[in-house]
Amino acid sequence: MLTVALVGNPNVGKSLLFYHLTGNYATVSNYPGTTVEVSQGRTNLAGRTCLVYDTPGMYSLSPVSVEEAVTRRLLWEAKPDLVVHVADAKNLPRMLPLTLELLAAGFNVILVLNMMDEAEKLGVRIRRAELSRRLGIPVLQAAFAHGRGLAALRREMAACLLGGKAGGHVCREHPLAIKAGRCLKGRYPFAAAVVARLFLEQDKEIQAAVVARENKAVLADCLTLFADELAQQEAGFFAVWRYREAEKLLAGVFYPGSEKPGGGLVDKLTLDPLGGLLPAAVVLYAGLYLFVGRFGAGYLVDMIEGVLLGEIILPRLTNWLSALSGWPSFLSLLTGEFGLLTLGLRYAVGVVMPIVGTYFFFFALLEDSGYLPRLAYLADAGLKKLGLGGRAVIPLALGFGCGTMAVLVTRVLESRRERLIATFLLALAVPCSAQLGLIMALLSREPFALLLWAAAVGGIFFLAGSMLNLLLPGQPAQFFLELPPLRRPALQAILQKTMARMRWYFAEVIPVFCAVSFVLWLLQQTGFLAALTAALAPLLGRMGLPPALGRVFLSGFFRRDYGAAGLFDLYREGALSEGQLLVAAVVLSLFLPCLAQLAMMIRERGLAASVLIACAVALLAVAAGILLRILLCLPVL
Amino acid sequence: MLPLLKKPAGSVAVIAEIATCDRTVIRKMSSLGIVPGVSVTVLRHSPAVLLQSGHTKIALDRNLAGLVYVK
Known about the structure:
The complex is a heterodimer. Chain A folds into 3 domains: 2-163, Rossmann fold, CATH 3.40.50; 175-255, no CATH class; 277-631, no CATH class. Chain A is 65% helix and 7% strand. Chain A has helices at residues 14-22, 66-78, 92-104, 116-121, 128-135, 150-163, 175-181, 192-200, 204-213, 216-231, 237-250, 265-271, 277-324, 328-335, 340-369, 372-384, 393-399, 403-409, 416-429, 433-443, 447-471, 491-526, 528-542, 549-558, 560-572, 578-590, 595-605, 607-631, and strands spanning 2-7, 39-45, 48-54, 82-88, 109-114, 125-126, 139-141, 254-255, 480-483. In chain A, the strands form 2 sheets. A 6-stranded mixed beta sheet of chain A has the order 2-3-1-4-5-7, sandwiched between helices. In chain A, α3 (92-104) links the parallel β4 and β5. Chain A is elongated, with a radius of gyration of 28 Å. Helices cover 18% and strands 39% of the residues of chain B. The radius of gyration of chain B is 11 Å and the shape is globular. The termini of chain B are close together. The mean pLDDT of chain B is 90.
């Protein structure tokens, strides 16, 4: 089958193009690195089915990040028949060096100048035909967000795939690399000059591939000569050379238009440490409190769980099932206290879906508007104290939606150390949206209690982060990030992204909810639940909490939101005082991550680190509960 | 040649050198277009350094920005 790879910097519209080509939506966003996994899809070009890869963002063939390494490995191993280099038109001088590298490596390349609408607004002009002639490859202008240029690109892709390599282009590689490439005799997926250059740049993966293919003596003689020559040059010698070449190619072809150095009111408001507080506060208040908290956790939960499921569907279903079946324990499995329908499905669909759904919508809005990188810029100084860089805003903010997804997204962080700290903080002190929504609903009647809760959880967040930063060995985080312009997000893209995340969430959450209901039902039927709850009672007593909460904490381990939902029920039954509710809310927020998050932690951080984190979190949660009980002068139960 | 950090906000400078032997730092910088010969405008110094290069804004923390020398 013919293969096509979509390649380019982060945030240039690869995923959007992928969606248009394959009808299969991958996450498109303004944040570098969200397409962490390579998506594959099929499309039809000139009557033939082609395999399309949507690759993680890449700046050059010399990888710095995991994403870049993945993309290069894909180019090296899959050797696609066609590479579509998607570039941000207004920043072409910064994009073209990658085009040159791809050409030098020997790929069949189409260059797409995307986001032409933005570029035109800034007065950027590009003589497309002349650039195409100079490069010797097809160059197209497009604005995928508005569907512009898609049909032409499909035609060009078909022509390139059928017609073979477009001839005539010169390989743009430095003479030193070309000479070094003559030392290589083996067969490589990239042109020898590029392989030799990457070898000289001490790229470990390429060095291993070269050593495996070449005669060692020749290699040592030949390449060391060039290595010595390179050692005379400055660091970044080849990259600088590519920039110069790109500049030469663009002379008389690319007109940058009016460069508006920032400083407008919007920038003042989103980038100034003081001015930036206002929009950040508005976004958090309107987005998290009003939209997710009040609308999602309040209104929607009342409508779906309270009215639709609670008053209309479930009572009828229960009646109908009890009329049908005469076997009471089977009936209790479905509709009892821990029934698959009355507990599992009710929580999943009635409580969690509206809250998580509204959060994902809010987050997609933040991502697509380009505001998140600005938030990262503002938060960098604060996060540095926790050993994290500004980039960590992304997984942490997503953690307020779903901790499991957030642990996956910690991949955008640079170092192992940062990923470990972020994972720990996500496990300990970042409540997910379902928890947050329920806790806000529970505590909002007592604004002071809500404030205390936020202070306790927030305080522990900063304390734990600072301690980890002090204790963990390794380098402090580095922060560097491109800040894209603020954009008006397209509703359709946001809805699609929200739906994609909801699908992911549900594929994972419904089975877990049903499994938890089943396990709880089994534990109850066999009497183990009572025994376990009793075993937890002394510990809970020290925190001033009644034994009934044991069940909440047990189920909370299976899913944190599930535990919070149990707390919600207990409170409605009047089994908790205000003070107890506060302690329970804090402990539950801090308590062990849910089963799904633990599984993701093990996958991403390894078993040993995850077990260590889980134990530390459990200890800290209990300690915080006891301390809070003492501070609130609650009696030991 | 002087450190980028010494340039006041609003001034234009041409990158002269990235003073480090760390290849990863050099690659990160060049991925963002911070390469000798490129002209940038310094927009802000706090909370982190903010540069404009072409039509892009680039944020660098002070440690990274401290490695950049300009003409």
